[in-house]
Amino acid sequence: MSVYKENKSLMEKYFKRYKIEAEPFNSDILSSILWELNIDGICEEDNFLFIFTSEKSSINKIVISSQLNKLKKEDLINNFNVEEELIQNKNWNEEWEKTIDVVNISDRIVIKPSFREYKKKNDEFVITIDPKMSFGTGKHTTTKLVVQMLEKYIKAGDNVLDVGSGTGILAITAIKLGSVSAVAIDNDDWCYENAIENCKLNNVEEKIDVRNCELAQVEEKDFSVIISNIQKNVLKDLAKDFKNRIKEKGILILSGLLENDKKEMIDFYSNYGYNLLESKQLEEWISLVFQKK
Q1: Each residue's pLDDT tens digit, 189-220
Q2: Domain range list for the chain
Q3: Domain topology for 2-90
Q4: CA 125/CA 177 separation, integer angstroms
């Protein structure tokens, strides 16, 4: 996935490109913290990502390394490497479109960008997502895990809360699977705007309330399903707020977690009054499904 700002600096003849490698590689976590540097774009590959800045930008390897060291201190990555290169400018919109393709998340759910044609099969749900600067194209393993869990646990008439909604892909999927309504929240302005656009692309804007806010600002207390695909420390910080907003016997679906987080998170949420219903792993990533006691 590649995402770029609409920025005048993109008109410059040259850009600085930085190749970022990290172990373990989590594109969502890396992208999130790197956007804080006011970079101009990100291009995600399978095992690394590129970030782009203006040739005249004050951002350099030292600044980037300092940002990545924050993830090391939180034990979210073990090590990283940053390489710098000066490259000639391109048509970034064309480059972005080349990297976005149709993704078959499961036997029934297909994610596609608006500029790709796809012939729907009879039993499929096709969801249109243009990611822009938000996260959630269906390509990342954690997104696939949550969508697969939604297929199993969403029931007709459920009301859903998506925390850290990014593109809105999970809330939109929940509606397509039968939820009657959803609230999708993110504290990032770009994600907020992008989720609104994607809801319109999928004709679900009347059923999804997209908000630019923190979880503490959500006043509703009776969600039947809460989804959150972020990262371990944030999920722990939000545990109390989740509990206060989910109804009795409600379903909590979490991801953005690594395999070695499993026992810690199961124990943590058990102490908050949840029973583990299921855990699922793809590659090194896991999703946990809890039910409020």
Answers
A1: 878 998 999 999 999 999 999 999 999 999 99
A2: 2-90, 100-292
A3: Alpha-Beta Plaits (3.30.70)
A4: 8
